[in-house]
Each structure stands twice: as C-alpha cells, then as structure tokens.
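Example record

Each entry pairs one chain with its bound ligand, uridine-5'-diphosphate-glucose.
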Amino acid sequence: MEVPAAAATAKPLLHTLTFSRAMVANHLFAAIYTCAVLALLYHHALTALSSTTFLSFSLSLAFLFSDFVFGFMWSTTQSFLMRPAHRRVFPENLRKVMREEDFPAMDVFICTADPHKEPPVSVVNTALSVMAYDYPAEKLSVYVSDDGGSDLTLFALVEAAKFGSHWLPFCRRNKVVERCPEAYFESNYPQSNESKQMKVMYESMKKWVENVVDSGKVTDDYITNEQERQAFNKWTRGFTRHDHPTVIQVLSEVGKDKDITGESMPNLIYVSRQKSRNSPHHFKGGALNALLRVSAVMTNAPIILTLDCDMYSNDPQTLHRVLCYFSDATICSKVGYIQFPQRFHGLNKNDIYACEFKRLFLIHPMGMDGLAGPNHVGTGCFFSRRVFFGGPSSFVSPELPELRPDHVVKEPIQAQSILAMAHRVADCKYEDQSNWGSKVGFRYGSLVEDYYTGYRLQCEGWQSVFCHPNRPAFLGDVPITLNDVLNQNKRWSVGLLEVAFSKYSPVTFGVQSMGPIMGHCYAHLAFWPIWSIPLTIYAFLPQLALLNGVSIFPKVSDTWFFLYAFLFLGAYAQDCLVFILCEGTFLRWWSDQRMWMLRGVTSYLFGSIEFLTKCLGIATHGFNLTSKVLDGEQSKRYDQGTFEFGVESPMFVPLSTAAIVNLIAFFGGLVGVFRGGDFDGLFVQIFVAGFVVVNCWPIYEAMVLRTDKGRMPTKTTLISTFLAWALYTAASHTPHI
Ligand SMILES: O=c1ccn([C@@H]2O[C@H](COP(=O)(O)OP(=O)(O)O[C@H]3O[C@H](CO)[C@@H](O)[C@H](O)[C@H]3O)[C@@H](O)[C@H]2O)c(=O)[nH]1
Ligand SMILES: [Mn+2]
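Structure tokens for the complex follow.
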C-alpha cells in the first residue's frame, strides 16, 4: 500500500496563520463611511464658497481643514482593518524538528539609562528573568547597556549574578513560571523551606542594592574581592554620565561560572559605552548599536532580543515560540523580526491614562500581520542579526569582518584580544563617517528609534511576525502620573513627526517601497500628533461660537444634520466595537477615548510645537526618560483611579482652559436656549460642549473638589481661568462681518 506523498513528507506543524472573518463587514462599512466623509468635505467647501461674511468663511475653512484631518486619520486606521491576521505557534512540536544541541545562540540586550529614574533593582529583575529562560545556558548571553554610566547599576548587576547562581537552579528544579523574582514573591507561590529561604536571600540582596543606591556611592564596605575593586576603580574623579570611558564588565561567563548545582551560568555582561560631550550619542538607538557591535565581537548570536529595563520576561518558554518561526527555513530568509506586544502590569481597573494602548500594541500589529508584518515597538522584539546589515537580498557589509553577522567567535569572551576589540567598537567616535544609523544597525534621526528602525527595515523588504500568546511574554511598567504619561506621549509625537516630514515619509517613500496599505499603516502612526489640529479646534471654536449665540453646524431639522450624526456615531461605534472585541471593557474604552481628547490639546499639540521649534533650529529636545519610580501616595491614588496632576506642567494649561470654556459654553448655551434661543441651530454645539464636559469631570474635580497633593495646582487653575476669560472676550469682540 502506498503512503500519500503529503503525509510521508508532512512536517510537524510549528505555526499557523488565519485571517479574521469580520473583514467583509468592515470593508462594507468603510466604503459607506468614506462616502459620508467626502460628502461632509463637500458640504464644508460649499458653505465656505457661499459664505457672506469673513467670519463664516474662516469658520468653514477651519472646519474643512479639521474634518479633512479627521477623515485622513480615520481612513488610515482602516488600513489596519483590511486584513487582520491571527497566528498560533506549536512549541511542543519543536523538538520533533530540532535537537536542543542545534538551538541557535541568543543575545539579549537590556537598556537602562538612569539609576534614579530606573531603579537598579528592577534592572536586576529583568536581567534575572531572561537569564532564567528555559534554554541551554551556554547559548544565552545577556548584555545590559547602561547609558547612565552608573556604578550603582553595575553594583546591582554584580549582586544579580551572585543571586542568580541560586535563583536559576531554584527555578529549574521547581519548574517556576514567574522567573522574575519580584513578581514571583508577589505571587501566590508555594510555601516550602526552599522558597522561604530563597525569599530571604532575595530580600537581603534587594535591601543591599537599595542601600547602595540610596547612599549614591559604592563604598569599600560593599566590595568583596579584588576583581570587583578593579571594576569600580574605573569610576574616577572625572567620570560623569556625559563624559566617561567605556566600561565592559563580564559578570558571569559561560563555562567558567557555575550555579550552585554546578551547571553553567549564562553570560551576563555590563556595557557602558564611551560618552563624550563632543560626540552625539543618539540615545537608545546609539546604545543598541554599540551593543550590536560589542555583542558581535563577544558572542555574535544570530538572534537578538531587545528589552527595556522595565520589561521582564513573564514566560520562560518564549524562546521556543520564537524558534517555531526562526527554525522554519521557508520564512527565515524573509522575516527580519518577531515582535511581541508591549503589555503591562499594575494598570488600574479602568486604565485611566489609557496606557494599555490597545490599538498601538495589539489591534494595529494584528492588522499589519496580515500584510507585511507589524511595526517594531522597541521592546520584546526578536531580531535576526542579519536584518541590521541591508535588505534580504542586498547585504551591506560592516567595516570590520568581526562585525559581520556570519562571523564565528573563536575565543572566550574575556580573552585579551576580544576585550580590546569590544572596547574599540564601543568608542564614541567609532561611528564617525560610517553607515551606522543610516544603512546599518538601528536608524538615527527620530526620537522613536523603534518605530523608525522597523519602518526602514520593512522598506528594505524585510517582513515581520506578530506573536501574542495568551500569557504575556513580557510585562512592563506604566507611568502613573498624568504628567509622565503626557511627557512620554509628547516625546513620541516629536519622534513620529520627525519621520512624517522626512525624506523617508511613509506617504511618499513608504507607499512606494511597501505598497499603499502598509504605507498607510505607517502613515497613520507617523501623523499621530496631527490629531491635535481637529481636536484643538473642536475643543474651542464651537464653544466660543455657542457663547455668542452663533450657530455653525447644521440645524437638527436640516438633512446635513444626519450626516454629522452618522459620522460621529459611526466612528465611535466602530472604535468601541473593535476595542471591546479585542478583550476590552467599556470603561477602558471610555478612558481610551478620553485620553485621546486630552492628548489632543496637550502632548500632540506640544509635541507638534516642539517639532516645529526643532525644525526652525530654535531649540533641541532630547530623550526625556519616563520615570519608573513609585511614590507611595501617588501609587495609592493611581490604584483608586484618581487622576494625578500635582505639578505645574505647561501642558495642564490648555487642558484646564478647554475644560473651563466647555463648561461655561455648555451652561451658557442651555440658559440661552431656555430664554428662547435657537435650540434647533445650537443643538450640535451644545452637544459637543456637553460631551467634553462629561469627559472633563476629573479635571473639574482636581480644580475645585480635591485637597490631596495630586489636585490641580492653584496657579494652573488661575492661569487657565484667566485664559478662558480672555478667549471669551476676544471671541465676543470678533466682528461678524
Ligand atoms: O539615552 C537613552 C534613553 C533611553 N534609553 C532606554 O530606552 C528605553 C525606553 O525609555 P523609556 O523612558 O522607558 O521610554 P518609553 O516611552 O516608555 O519607551 C517606548 O518608546 C521608546 C521610544 O521613544 C522606545 O525606545 C521604547 O522601547 C518604548 O517602550 C529605556 O530602557 C531606557 O533605559 C537608553 O538606553 N538611552
Ligand atoms: Mn518605558
């Protein structure tokens, strides 16, 4: 009897790809909605042309422009809904196609930049969580890049290596799933003598490290041997975070350092690249490129995982999932990276600051996965080392043979020649007149180096894969104060505009290189901050007109009114549906749309202004690190779902001004209508103001009702009240000619 050919050659299944069935319904809705948007723009153009006064002409023009932006942003989001895909992997089949001896080596990069904003204990936890992966230790190397050039961070990692020699075998023996010690001891872990002992050991290590960090100095009492002393001696008098030589310290070495059961430890290497005030360092992109070179010289693993210091591994099996793709020869030559979503721990119930970014981190990448693959989001991403050296069929060779992705390292990592070469490639002048940052490695030129690099790689022809298992592979911290959130979003805004208005803009270069749909996906992200234009206009203009009794939208009895109603309800309903179908709750969606409005008059707006001043050469802005330090009282308020203002941030000024203007306009409008005003003509404006007021409730609370430290600073409230009054006065004196 003959065996069917397919069955005889069938390989065990490693991964599958399926497309969402909701696609057709969505295409239909998109087609109708597009017609509605076009009709609205036509309506605005018509009103503008037939307007009799200068005022009504400029108003129609303003709304024509803002609705055009709305329409553009809405249509680009539809690219993500064109062909959403879902993937599954079958790591249980991996052993059938591959022996453990054949597993490729992995280099893990962890970035940190400031021991006071990024507590070293949390860096330690991240490092330990990846060192403890279910993977042959001799194939695993963890590199920690310290852009803060801090001996406190080095000290913490020295302690991490010592503690790791107990922690790793403990995890192995007990099949621990939470391999980040902090998360493990916070969880409901089994109480045994061994686990209790481990906890004592962890707590004392943590305390030890925190003491040193609090004291700000690694004194002799904390140094236990000559090797350590030599390492810390590098922090001489002239050593500052902006000006210092390279420090590379091997804290644990494969084959040499063993855990307490005698098994090999993975490599753990501390790298602080050379810094000088006279050389640009390109922030995180620069740090990652330095690590790319240092790791090439020392281990040169074909697969690289990049992590932010707060993103610990939450699943020891993740590397097996990744191998399901990278071991498949059919996709290996095209797939450049495998992106896991950014997911977070410690979000409050309704996620008041919408830090989950469900669209950015889940819905959009799933949409792109059915096309050429998701964008890169900076952390939780596995790269094939080859992607950093040209497109799939156009290799760009690095300047040194040792840096080539196919170079084989023959000497141990602490060999004199290896260390000398590693120092050489970490030099701050090394990249001068080279391809690094332009054609090779992570790309420079944008504060969102992650987005930009992924985008450029996809333009070169690389595809990517989105992997999002039910159990999050990585978990990170979220900012817990509104000011931190807005500042983070502002930095992203500046970085995105840098791409949007560069010669590599997705609307021109992107569309040409990767086709219209992928190009539009990237364009949606690049133009994210231009939401500020319609959002700011809609936050003030209809309200100021309302206060003056000027009707600017169609009357309820007018047929054009239904167009407005359809556009508003249609977009909101679609957005809400997509959000809730992606495991969202209604209240989280509500927070999400609220934060979108808030960002419109704060981070998007300030980001756009900063970008402009940068273009004009008036000011430059660096990478403002997001704080990962938890303040007790702030944490408490965050957990209760209370907004945190507290500081005098310039971004709070337009926010409170808008809140005040809308409140007054809403009540003023209602009073006017009761006194016999034109309800029919003013309804839309009253509705818009009312909708903003409902969204602004936490702001009113923070301005008048609250007494805690997180309330709105009185100065901000006063300035905003004054500005609201000034706007009102100006509006009421605008001649209606
Ligand atoms: O000069 C620098 C500045 C930052 N970092 C590191 O970059 C990471 C991200 O910084 P963070 O302050 O946490 O910024 P976020 O806005 O939270 O990060 C998101 O946005 C960044 C781009 O702006 C991406 O790099 C990140 O991966 C992405 O998670 C951290 O590990 C930092 O240590 C450096 O290594 N060197
Ligand atoms: Mn972060």
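The chain has 27 helices and 14 strands.
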